[in-house]
Amino acid sequence: MGFDIESYLSEQKNGEVILYYKGNIDSDVINHVLDTVEDKLVSLNEQARLRKKVYNVLVESLQNLYHHVDKVPEDFEDQSAEKFGLLMIKKLDDGYKIITGNFIRKENIEKLEEKIKRINRSSQEEIKELYKFILNHQRITNKGGGGLGLVDIARKTGNKLEYHFKEYNKEHSFFYLNILVNDTEK
Amino acid sequence: MEPFISEPTAKTPSVRFDANAGIFEIKGRSIPENSVEFYKPILDWLEKYKENPLSKTEVNIRLEYFNTSSSKCILDVFKKLEAIHKAKNEVQINWYYEEDDEDMLEAGEDYESIIRVPFKMIEITD
After folding, report:
1. pTM of the full structure
2. B interface mutation test: which of A36, A39, A49, A65 has the most B CBs within 10 A?
3. A7-182 CATH fold
4. CATH of domain B4-124
5. Residue B8 Ramachandran class (φ > 0 left, ψ -120 to 50 alpha, else beta)
6. Contacts across the A-B interface (CB distance below 8 Å)
7. Which of A31, A128, A138 sits opposite B10 (nearest CB)?
8. A102 closest CA partner among A176, A178, A10, A9
9. pLDDT tens-digit profile, chain A (186 residues)
10. Complex ipTM value
11. Residue ranges per domain, chain A?
12. Residue ranges of the domains in chain B?
C-alpha cells in the first residue's frame, strides 16, 4: 500500500462534492476555480452573504497554497507540479466545506501548527485584534503572502480551523486544512 | 499631473486617480497573487501627488472582494493619504460596502481605526 493522499478526503463523508482538483496551483488554475465556484454558487441560489464568504475563503486558501506549499517529495507520483495542491469543495446542508491539501517539510510543521493553535484558542474578538495587528505591523514576505490568510479565514467563517498532518516519509508530511463556511450570525 | 488609470481585470480593480479633480477611485476586485506588483505604481503616483496635492482629495473605495495581501497594500495607499491629510490638506475616504456585507464594513472599520483620516462608511442598496 502506497501513500494515499485522497484517503483523508474519502473519510469526510458529509456533503456533496461540487469541485475537486489536484495538481499544480498556478494563477490560471486559481482563476478557473474561482470562476467555476462563483457560477456554481449563483446557480445554487445561495444568499449573497454566504456566497461572498465562500469566495473570500476560497481565494485565501488557494493563495495560501500558491504562496506556501513546499516542493513535492522526489518519489511522489506527480513530479510535473511545481506547486502541488489538492482542493475539494463540498456542499453541506448549512454551508460549504473547503478542504485543501499540500506537502509540508517536517521542519515547517511546528510553526504552522503553532499558528493554527493560536488562532483556534482565540475568541472572535481576539482574532479581529490579531488581524489588525498583523495588518499594521507585518510586512509582506518575499513569498508574497501577508501572513494573514489563516487569520482571515478564521475571522470570516467564525469557525475553528480543522487540520490534519499525515506522514509521507522521513522528510515530508501532507497537510490538510478543513474549513467549514456556514452562514452564522456573528 | 497625469491621472493614474488602470483598467479592471479578473483579479485587479479599476483604478482612477484624477489629480486635477482630486477624486480617486478603486473599484471591483483586488485579489492578485502578487499585490505588491500591482500596487507599486499606485504608491509611486501617490508619492508624487503628495508633493503638491489639491486642498481637498476625495477617495472612493468600492471593493467587492479583496485578498489579504491586497489588504496590506491598501493600508499603504491609506498611509500616503494620511500623510497628505497630516500636511493640512482635506482628505476624505468613502468606504462603500454592499447591504448585508458585514465583512466589508468591518474591513473598512479596521482601516478607520488604524488610519487618521476621516472615513465615511456608505452602504450600497439596490
Report:
1. 0.94
2. A49
3. Heat Shock Protein 90 (3.30.565)
4. 3.30.750
5. beta
6. 73
7. A31
8. A176
9. 467 888 999 898 889 999 999 999 999 999 999 999 999 999 999 999 999 999 999 999 999 999 999 999 999 988 888 899 999 999 999 999 999 999 999 999 999 999 999 999 999 999 999 999 999 987 766 555 567 999 999 999 999 999 999 999 999 999 999 999 998 655
10. 0.94
11. 7-182
12. 4-124
